[in-house]
Design goal:
The chain has five helices and four strands; from the N terminus they run ααβαβαβαβ. The protein has 134 residues and is mainly alpha-helical. Helix 1 (9-22) packs across helix 2 (24-33) and helix 1 (9-22) runs parallel beside helix 3 (47-58).
Length: 134
Amino acid sequence: MRRNCYIDFAMILFYSLRILREHSFVARGLSCRFSWLLVDEFQDTTDVQIAIIGELNRHLQSRFFLVGDESQSINGFAGARPDLGQAFAVDVQAEQNFVLTGKFRCAPQIVNPAETLTPRMPAMLSAGAAANVA
């Protein structure tokens, strides 16, 4: 990879973090440009990705909208750390009182057994068109 001057996704993350840490004007510029940053599937973020958004948070310009469900983390093989979500939410002073219960892509035949295996409070339910699939 180095001989051919290629970089992979892990290297992109690593160098992004280095740039933000070593050149704070980049982090300031990004955090000033975007008042909100949405991170969907937050349960599948890695420690490096969390460090990157943490660097943006240090400049206190951006706010975060984080959506994730620890029980749906599927990228552990790629370094996902769902256990880091709670600590990061505390660090950015996130409100954590919003619970999403509607599952719009899965029929009750999938949601109900999943809810039995991993119960939630409040329970996950099929919603929208998926709720009517028989």
